């Protein structure tokens, strides 16, 4: 059945294959015999307007990251237009059976709805982020735009034939807030592939006798709290005079230049290093040099419900974690994390110094995290659940008019 089906995936905030979750899903579909197309922005070294990678057809468009409400409105409108035009280009290549739309923003349902009305295309919502909570976290107000985001989220769930949740908290939101029947929501977690995420020989430039290295990996937006880590390192180095603790920050994002400027202002250049985006062997070599991983994301309505890739990545490498009190991340990390109850650079510095000075605890936490990861963090299991959802949705004889009635697989 899958060999005769074409799935189009829409993603707005990251290019593919840079977006690991979307790329894993696309590869899973292609490996199961589906014809797969992806529409996404260009960037992160992936700038071709059209190319085929690993059998997946990728259509890209230019995108400039926004930093203000007006900028986001322009960005999302431009993305919507590009996705709409490119979706019909993908359809000219081959009929589209399913559109899978990833958020943010919660506007891609409009593209799926158009294809559903015109061609009977199914719509799968891949729920990556909490739009209303993310807006409130960034701008601190529940105004007209916040209410519009709530409205768009409800309409997305209403139009969707099935929804993919990144964790149990998102599944509960899909059911309670989105009105989705529970048997139309499947949890698919974003675990790295174990074969590609293993310790290697550490990056030699980061290995300094007598020095301990702590680190962060991820996107650097205003909501990610990396500034708190920079200020915590200032506390460690300047206030507590610990010249044996260094930090490496891996990744990029809209806040990167500002964070570099803050580090320079605090005169942390000898203790804090920014690598930019890394991948493959270089990423593994840098992560393998760490003594512990940091999750500086502040507790709030959004972060409290997110499954963070950093948790999975640190645990798979056997790295103990220092983090703030984040509900979902704390549940997933369990004993691999030292949870700092107060959100402040001072408290984060306390947690870093406490673990650095307790090598036995670091070791036991790392062993625990690695054991949990080996037992539970298996992308192959998540991929099966993902493909089972598609098999159920596309079973012979099912039409869009039957979408509310198909059973769970």
Please provide a written account of the structure.
Residues 403-409 have low confidence and may be disordered. Helix 4 runs antiparallel to helix 5 (144-159). It contains 14 helices and 14 strands. The chain has helices spanning 20-31, 69-93, 109-119, 131-139, 144-159, 168-176, 226-239, 256-265, 280-287, 309-316, 327-333, 345-356, 359-376, 379-393; strands spanning 6-10, 35-41, 50-53, 56-61, 98-102, 122-127, 162-165, 185-187, 212-217, 245-250, 272-276, 292-295, 321-324, 337-340. It has 2 domains: 2-191 and 378-402, Rossmann fold, CATH 3.40.50; 195-376, Glycogen Phosphorylase B (Rossmann fold, 3-Layer(aba) Sandwich), CATH 3.40.50. It has an 8-stranded mixed sheet, with helices on both faces. Strands 11-10-9-12-13-14 form a 6-stranded parallel sheet, with helices on both faces. It has 409 residues and is an alpha/beta fold.
Q: What is the number of domains?
A: 2
CATH topology of the largest domain: Rossmann fold
Strand content: 15-25%
- Major sheet strand order: 3-4-2-1-5-6-7-8
CATH H-tier superfamily of the largest domain = Glycogen Phosphorylase B
Mean pLDDT: 93
Shape-level CATH architecture of the largest domain: 3-Layer(aba) Sandwich
The CATH C-level name of the largest domain is Alpha Beta
What structural class do helix, strand and pairing data support? alpha/beta
End-to-end distance: 16 Å
> Helix fraction?
40-55%
How many DSSP-defined strands?
14
Run of helices and strands: EHEEEHEHEHHEHEEHEHEHEHEHEHHH
Poorly predicted sequence stretches spanning 5 or more consecutive residues: 403-409
Shape: globular
Question: Strand count, sense and closure of the main sheet?
Answer: 8 strands, mixed
Rounded to an integer in angstroms, the radius of gyration calculated over CA atoms is 22 Å
């Amino acid at each position: 059945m899958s060999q005769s089906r074409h799935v189009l995936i829409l993603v707005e905030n990251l290019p593919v294959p840079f977006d690991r979750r979307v790329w894993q899903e696309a590869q899973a579909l292609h490996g199961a015999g589906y014809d797969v197309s992806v529409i996404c922005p260009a960037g992160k070294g992936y700038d071709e307007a059209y190319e085929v990678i690993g059998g997946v057809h990728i259509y890209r468009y230019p995108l400039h990251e926004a930093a203000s409400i007006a900028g986001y409105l322009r960005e999302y409108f431009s993305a919507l237009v590009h996705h709409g035009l490119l979706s019909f280009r993908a359809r000219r290549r081959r009929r589209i059976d399913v559109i899978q739309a990833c958020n943010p923003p919660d506007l891609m349902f409009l593209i799926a709805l158009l294809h559903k009305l015109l061609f009977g295309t199914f719509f799968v919502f891949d729920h990556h982020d909490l739009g209303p909570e993310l807006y409130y976290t960034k701008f601190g107000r529940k105004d007209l735009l916040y209410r519009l985001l709530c409205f768009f989220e409800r309409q997305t769930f209403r139009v969707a034939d099935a929804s993919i949740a990144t964790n149990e908290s998102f599944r509960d939101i899909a059911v309670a807030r989105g009105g989705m029947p529970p048997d139309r929501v499947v949890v698919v977690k974003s675990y790295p592939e174990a074969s590609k995420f293993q310790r290697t020989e550490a990056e030699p430039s980061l290995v300094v006798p007598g020095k301990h290295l702590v680190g962060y990996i991820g996107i650097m937006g205003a909501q990610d709290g990396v500034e708190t880590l920079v200020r915590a390192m200032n506390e460690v180095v300047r206030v507590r005079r610990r010249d044996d603790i260094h930090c490496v920050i891996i990744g990029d994002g809209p806040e990167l230049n500002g964070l570099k400027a803050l580090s320079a202002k605090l005169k942390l250049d000898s203790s804090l290093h920014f690598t930019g985006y890394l991948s493959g062997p270089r990423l593994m070599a840098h992560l393998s040099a760490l003594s512990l991983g940091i999750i500086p994301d502040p507790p709030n309505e959004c972060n409290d419900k997110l499954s963070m890739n950093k948790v999975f990545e640190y645990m798979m490498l056997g790295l103990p974690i220092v983090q703030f009190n984040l509900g979902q991340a704390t549940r997933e990390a369990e004993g691999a994390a030292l949870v700092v109850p107060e959100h402040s650079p001072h408290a984060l510095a306390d947690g870093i110094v406490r673990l650095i000075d307790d090598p036995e605890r670091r070791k036991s936490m790392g062993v625990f995290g690695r054991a949990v990861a080996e037992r539970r963090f298996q992308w192959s299991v998540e991929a099966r659940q993902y493909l089972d959802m598609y098999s159920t949705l596309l079973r012979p004889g099912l039409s869009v008019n039957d979408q509310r009635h198909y059973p769970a697989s």
